[in-house]
Amino acid sequence: MKISCWVLFFWLLLSIFASGSLSIDSFNQAFPIIEPDPGHTKLRLSSEGLEAIKRITNPIAAVSVIGPYRSGKSFLLNQLLSLSCYEGFGVGHMRDTKTKGIWVWGTPLELDINGVKTSVFYLDTEGFESIGKSNVYDDRIFALATVLSSVLIYNLPETIREADISRLSFAVELAEEFYGRSAGQDVAFEPAKLLWLIQRDFLQGKSVQQMVNEALQHVPNSDGNKNIDQVNQIRDSLAIMGDNSTAFSLPQPHLQRTKLCDMKDGELDPMYVKKREQLKELVASFIRPKIVQGKSLNGKEFVAFLEQILEALNKGEIPTTGSLVEVFNKGILERCLKLYSEMMAKLRLPLPEKSLQNVHENSKGETMKSFDEQHFGRHHAKKSVMQLDEEIEKVYKNFILANEYKSAKLCEALYTRCEDRMDQLQVLRLPSMAKFNAGFLQCNQSFERECVGPSKANYENRMIKMMGKSKSSFIKEYNHRLFNWLVAFSLVMVVLGRFIIKFILIEIGAWILFIFLETYTRMFWSAESLYYNPVWHFIVATWETLVYSPILDLDRWALPLAFVAAILVVYWRCYGGRTGSRWLLPLYNSHKGGTNRPRTD
C-alpha cells in the first residue's frame, strides 16, 4: 500500500512537470485572443490566447496588421517573424477569410528598447469587407487593434482609396471614444505609430509617402459642397495621428501568389526580399512599450486593459462607417431633445421667470448628460452638441412665449374679476366703507397670490391704478350717498313711527335726525361741511356697524329682512291688539273721548 502511494505521488509530480513543459512549448504557435460571437456582430475573449500574454512580466508592445480580407496580412506577419506558413499564422487561399477575430503569436520577440527589456507580440486581425459580416463587427476589430497596438500596419493592395481613409478615420475616432469611456474622459488617447504599407510594383514617379500625403490633403471646396465637407471632415479626424504616420511600399513577392507558402527566399523577387528586410528594421525602430495613463503594461495589465476596452466596445451603441457619424448622432440628438421637451412639458404654466429658468437649466443639464453618455466621437460630436444646444434654446423660447401668454391670460382674468368687483362695490344699495375695504383687500390678496409669471409686474401696475381710481371714486360718492340715504331713512321712520308702528319715540328720533341733517346743511350752506362734524362721524360709525360686519351683510339681506319686517308689522297691526299685551314703549291712543263713547251715524 505504501509503495502504491509513493508511485502515485511520483506520477503526479511527473504529470505536473510534463504539463508545464508542454504548456511552455505550446506557446510557440498562434492563439486567438478575440473571437467573434455566433452572430458575427460582437467580440469575446479567448482564454488560451490571454494565457500566453498574462505570463509576461516585462513591458509589452504590440504590432498589429489590419486591412481588407485576402490582402496578405497573415503572410506578411509570418515574413516579419521569419516563419513559414506552416509554422506561423494560418494563411488562406480561398475566398473566405482564414483569420477570425484577433490572433497573437504566443512567443514574443524580446527587444531592448532604450534600456528596457520589452516583449513584442504580433497580432493578426480578421480582414474587413468580407462576406457575411456587419460593418459594426469590422469597425470593432479595427478600433480594438488601434487601441492595443504600439505599431499599426495598415496593409493596402495597390493604392489608397477614399474608403480606406474613411475606415481608418472612423477606427481612430472609435478607438479614441471607447478608450475615453474605459480609461476616463480626461485621459488623452495615445495613438499607435501608423505605417501605411502599400503593396504595389511601381509608383510612376511618386514615392509612396507622397501618395499618402496627397491622399490626406484637404480637398478644395470653394462652392461649399456638403459631400466635400464630409470628405475633409474625415481628414480632420485623423489630426490626432499628427506626424505619427509613415508610408512604405512593398512589391509583390511573386506572381504566383497561391504558391508563396512553398517558396524559399531564393525563389522570391529579390527586390521584395530587400524591401522586406528594410520593413523589419523600420517596424523594429517604431516599437515602443504600450503606454496607458503614463504607465507601461505587463502581461496581466495588458489583458485587463483589453477586457476594459472590449467591454466598452460591446456595451456601447456605435455607428458604422457605412452611415455618417452625424446621422447616428442626429438620432441621439432627437431622442435627447424629446427628453428635454418631455421634462419641460410636465410644468404647469404659468411660472415665475426665475422658476422657469431653473427648471430649464436642470432639464438642459440632464439632457446634455444623456447626450454625452450616448453620442459618438469627440470631434464629430462638437457639431451635434452645438446643434443640440441651439435646438434646446429654440424649445425653451417656445416655453417662454407660452409662459408669457398663459401668464397674461391668467392675470388679465384676475384683473377683470377685480375690476368687476370694484364696479359692484361702487353701486352698493347700502353704501359701506367697511365692505368696500374688505372687497378691496380681498382683490389685492387674490391677485398677489394667483397672478404669476412675467406679466405680473405689468398687471400689478394696472391694478394699482385701477384700485386707486375705484377707491377715490367710492370715497367721493360715499358721504353724499350716505347723506341722502339718512334723509330718506329719517322720513321713512317718521311715517312708520306715526302711522304704522305708532311708536312715539321712533317718530321723535326720526324727526331729530331729519331736522339735524336739513338744518345743519342750511346753516353751513353745503353738505360737505357736515362731513367734518363729530356728530356725523358718530352717525357714520353707527351706520357702518349696522350695515356691514363679518357676521351680517345688510346690503345683501336688506330686501329679505324688509320683507320679513313688513309681514311682522302687518301681523301685529291685524292681530296684536286682540292679545291685550302691554308694550314697553308708549303708543298712540286711537280712541277719542274715552272707550265708551257711542258711535254716531
Multimeric state: single chain
- Given as residue ranges, the uncertain stretches (5+ residues, pLDDT < 50) are 6-24, 580-585, 591-595
Helix content: 55-70%
Mean pLDDT: 76
Order of helices and strands: HEEHEHEEEHEHEHHEHEEHHHHHHHHH
Roughly how many Å apart are the termini? 165 Å
Rg from C-alpha positions? 51 Å
Shape: rod-shaped
Beta percentage is 5-15%
Write down how many β-strands occur, each being a DSSP E stretch of 2 or more residues.
Answer: 11
Counting H and I runs of at least 4 residues, what is the number of helices?
17
Judged by helices, strands and strand pairing, the structural class is alpha/beta
Largest sheet: 9 strands, mixed
Q: Which helices and strands appear, and what pairs or packs with what?
A:
Layout: H1 2-26, E1 30-36, E2 43-45, H2 47-54, E3 60-66, H3 73-80, E4 102-105, E5 109-113, E6 116-125, H4 135-148, E7 151-157, H5 162-183, E8 193-199, H6 208-215, H7 226-237, E9 245-250, H8 270-286, E10 291-292, E11 295-296, H9 299-315, H10 325-345, H11 353-374, H12 380-426, H13 433-450, H14 456-500, H15 504-523, H16 534-547, H17 554-575
Helix pairs in contact: 4-5, 4-9, 5-7, 5-9, 10-11, 10-12, 11-12, 12-13, 12-14, 13-14, 14-15
Task: Give a short overview.
With 601 residues, this protein is α/β, with parallel strands linked by helices. The chain is built from 17 helices and 11 strands.
Task: Describe the fold and architecture.
By secondary structure, the chain is an alpha/beta fold. Helices cover 57% and strands 10% of the residues. The chain contains 17 helices and eleven strands. The strands form two sheets. Strands 1, 2, 3, 4, 5, 6, 7, 8 and 9 form a nine-stranded mixed β-sheet that branches. A two-stranded antiparallel ribbon has the order 10-11. Strand 7, helix 5 and strand 8 form a beta-alpha-beta unit. Helix 4 packs antiparallel against helix 9 and helix 11 packs antiparallel against helix 12. The chain is rod-shaped, with a radius of gyration of 51 Å. About 5% of the residues have low confidence. This is GUANYLATE-BINDING PROTEIN 4-LIKE. One of its GO terms (molecular function) is GTPase activity.
